[in-house]
Fold this protein.
Amino acid sequence: MLEVVALYWIKIFVTLVVFIVLIIFFIRSGREQSSISGSILVRNELDLLNDNYTVFCNVNIPTERGMTQIPYVVVSPFGIFVMTCCYHVGKISGRESDQEWNIKNRGINETMTNPLWENRKHINDIEKKIDLELHYIPLIVFTYSKLVNDFGPAVVRVGRLRDFFAIYEKTLVSQADQKSVINILKE
């Protein structure tokens, strides 16, 4: 009987050790994944787009308030995609119309300015610079966040980025307008 009890405790001990090793393994693998910067994740996805898309990174635009920097502008026959990137870690909650969205990460609650509003400012600034009546498409990309709420079609996780572009199939920007926009953004 004593041997059965001892064997029982040995099994529990081994199970506990295996469980702890698995937890350590998952924590380390999570850290390795997050060691890739969010901007590299976004850029890697954008590099997979075909020749219909011309990608501009860190576009600086003079404004009445000084300068603004737009993380990515993607010129295509389907529209001008104006991207805002969010590299927050945690669970994002809120509503499209809220001024601030909530971030919860490891029990810590923070807020962020609604990136849809920031993106709208970027679109307004780029419209003024380009000065052409074109189809501008807002796009907010989250890299390491879990989106708790539905923030609308313009808010996606980085893994859904190419799917977002694939939705747009109708040609709305002529080749001449695309060339004009590309030349303006190269300045």
About this structure: The longest strand covers residues 79-93. Strands lie at 54-63, 66-76, 79-93, 100-105, 108-113, 136-147, 155-157.
